[in-house]
Amino acid sequence: MNQLIPDVASNATARQLDSMTNTDTGSLRWSIAQVEVLLNLPFSDLIHRAQLVHRQHHDANAVQLSTLISVKTGGCPEDCGYCPQAARYHTDVEDKEMLSLDQVVVTARAAKAQGASRFCMGAAWRGPKQRDIDKIVEMISSVKALGLETCATLGMLKPGQAEQLRQAGLDYYNHNLDTAPEFYGEVITTRDYQDRLDTLEKVRAVGMHVCCGGIVGMGESRHTRAGLVAQLANLEPYPESVPINHLVQVEGTPLHGTEALDPLEFVRTIAAARITMPKAMVRLSAGRQEMSEAVQALCFLAGANSVFYGDKLLTTGNPETQRDDALFKKLGLHSL
Ligand code: SAM
Ligand code: DTB
Ligand code: SF4
Fold this sequence. Notes:
alpha/beta, ten-stranded parallel β-sheet, 13 helices, globular, binds S-adenosylmethionine, binds 6-(5-methyl-2-OXO-imidazolidin-4-yl)-hexanoic acid, binds iron/sulfur cluster
């Protein structure tokens, strides 16, 4: 069962971490205190642990490529403080009509030709209406027919909708927890944490894979980042895909102007995700365009093994594919 996990304060040290048992964490795989111990480790010790876990479960030189498309951009009624697509904030993003099936298929074909293995369709909705589902279902089956893995991120799901998406051939549903429960209310008020857990539960119940992660760099503390990672790691089972986004600061959104996060804190979060969710694909997600190659390399070293590939995320920029190809070559990474 998905549930909010308790926050028990602890002054545990790294040595205690290794001797902590399930009795210390109750039924949880990872307590917040344990994840905080990880995040507090000397940087090299943390990366070493992440590398050990990564190499035990994955090809350390492989990276999975997902391409994003925004099938419905802007005009969203929600108030997520980071998001340029919320209608209530004055950003450069306009409320656009839904893309046609043709536009989606052409883009998916191009993504496949460029080397992406997964195609993720996003919509700026609180949740889909039935007429939206009818159109999305066609998009999913057409993209799937191209031989791509399919992913969609459409907001909260109502009863029956997950099943319709699964039957159309949807492999993954992306729905992020975004942050730890105690910080969540500072960022979003139009839906609560439990709403998100409920949607994830619906996705699981029909046997779809879960893609679920969060955003780092929203002015949260290290403790809050530990809370997010613990929350994800204790989902039953933990997500197959874990996108760790760095906040892309967009003018007009409430979080624009947030104090910049030390990039090494981002790397630490990736490492903690890798250690606590050993088999998951940990995706170095939004924010790569603003990141140096050196920081991205550290993220791969810390256990990231997936990225968004293509020059656009949903509304903001992402590195050009040639730039990424050059980086992967430099690092000796091959795509999955
Ligand atoms: N509207 C749907 C929803 O919110 O569930 C799906 C699309 S929404 C844009 C998907 C995710 O993108 C959000 O949950 C958030 O984690 C991420 N995101 C949105 N804006 C972002 C930003 N400025 N920086 C980093 N991540 C962002
Ligand atoms: C996820 O975790 N990150 C992606 C995807 N899932 C849908 C979205 C990032 C959006 C960044 C802001 C934008 O481009 O609008
Ligand atoms: Fe809407 Fe999703 Fe943006 Fe929130 S993150 S404002 S739900 S598009």
